[in-house]
Write a structure and sequence with these properties.
FAD/NAD(P)-binding domain; 2 domains; 6-stranded mixed β-sheet; 5-stranded parallel β-sheet; 20 strands
Amino acid sequence: MVDSVVDVLVVGAGPYGLSVAAHLKGRGVQTRIIGVPMRFWQENMPEGMFLKSEPFASSLGSPRPGGGFDDYTSGWRAGRPIPLGTFLAYGRWFADRLVPETEPDRVTAVERSGTGYTVTLSTGETVAARAVVMAVGVGGFAHVPDEFAGLPAELASHPVAHRDLGRFAGQDVAVVGAGQSALETAALLAESGAYPCVLARTTRLAWNAVPDASLSLVRGPRSGLGRGWRTWLWSERPSTVRFLPERTRRRIVRTTMPPAGAWWLRERLADVPVRLGQHVTEVAAHAGRVVIQTRDHEGQVSRVEADHAITATGYVCDLDRVGVLSPEIRRTVHTRHGYPVLDAGFQSSLPGLYFAGLTAALSFGPVMRFVHGSDFAAARIATHIARTNPSRPMPRVPAQARP
């Protein structure tokens, strides 16, 4: 027996979940969105962090004018980094204005049923939904290299495990990676009194240039993913990615915006040791510390000992890690390389089951890894649902069955 019914249930209240719910509401679709607005950003991003994206590329998807980041901040200038707290406040402001009905619960299970899907909430309520939108964010896809996977949490972790890096004050911390997450984590650690050391496979750190809003036919237009004609295409016309061969799409997702640090971060790492060209070959725990063995491109072996290792090695989509989906759904939905296969409306092979955010990257390209892609995804999903799942009378739930 179910306790309530709804046309669409959105799982997750991050940038993509809020954007999808706002667009659905704008089309008059009966919608429930489950989750605390911006919770992952609040609980799993480090204090003192700044967004790498520019103001124009940091807006959630609004179905009407007035919901963008610039509308909240009244002219945040280009090139000025956005503090995490400011972005959190903007996301909550967006939710209050456009999706005030957000429910601060958790979804514990999504199962198929005769009328669509049955969703169980942490309150114990069961909801019958004609369509479900999975906007679960990136947290569940945090990637830890195999070499570190066997270590206990007190010796190795991913950046998403740390809201307060001050806990490492006075400790040696090895930071593995060469992208923004690794470099900013190292800077924040040093500023918190820790002694970080960056280990990177690349032989040279890459740094993003100071933003330039001028037009340039040679360098190409500016977009949410940077500057360049191809970058503009993947950023502003993500529907074109679907028409490319799968191998090309995988390469685009992997290589667009490769690991690099923001220009404003460079001087903050001046006193942080950085060891380049280091490939991790072996990791072990010894006497309460982590011992990391590396080999450089000339074959020279080195060893680093630390009190803790933080593997800032990104996120890898794997639908099997979305535990709220029933085993039957995970077994049935078509996937490629861990990603669900989606149609032009972000719908999976199971009618009425949609995916937004990182899980849509193989179908719609690298912009789905960033906030900038939320408006396109939300508009497409809302349009598809409104056209293919028009509201129809659903079975009434007896009053005594409602919570």
